[in-house]
Amino acid sequence: MSTFAVIMPAAGQSSRFRHKHYKKPFAPLNDRAVWLHAADRFLQRDDVKQVIMVISPEDREDFYSKFGANIAILGVDVVEGGATRSDSVANGLAEVKPEIDFVAVHDAARPCLANEWIDQVFAKAEETGAAMLAIPVRGTLKRVRGDQTIEETISRDGIWEAQTPQVFRRQLLIDAYAQAGSEPATDDAQIVERSGQAVTVVEGSPINMKITTTGDLRLAQEALKALPKPRLDSPGHPFADGDLWR
Asked: What CATH topology corresponds to 4-225?
């Protein structure tokens, strides 16, 4: 059986979230932090041998104050992030155990995961070396000028919206990051694409949403209801409560 590590970036500034108490990965969702919903899906798996949370240095004290017991009991590793998302993932990648076969990168603010989606993208990564969840774009796309008028209508043929997890053979991702240079990238698949490696798309679901604004929390509450219930044979979340990081 192949082994997997999961890197969960949570070092961003959450500038669009606009909450006075929380950044989006640490906000309460059904009385648990958003990131714990995501982490639990991976911690339940026998093939996941390491989960790494990447947080901002400025959040370290508060993060450990609130979630230190969860981290210790669940066996989650914590790494400080960098100036960009790619820097943060690179810091997490440096801490992946050398015996791990594959590395999955999953947004800490994407809590609505189903086990079968993880199964599918893990299996495809084992087959091809690089795979990611994504969904085909179904709406009409418009390119808009700075004055808010439409410049053109864009064909949606072959256009997919990227999701996570994005899963790569460990050495492939290490090599891609080593070649990446300073050019910005919005996700890890883009970095791997630039190295010349094809990335296979596995169709996900709109339910696998990323929390961006406070309003998204209400949508995520409904999305969680549509997911299969987690198994009860894992450590779970022994210290979850309703007053998360106030």
From this structure: Spore Coat Polysaccharide Biosynthesis Protein SpsA; Chain A (3.90.550)
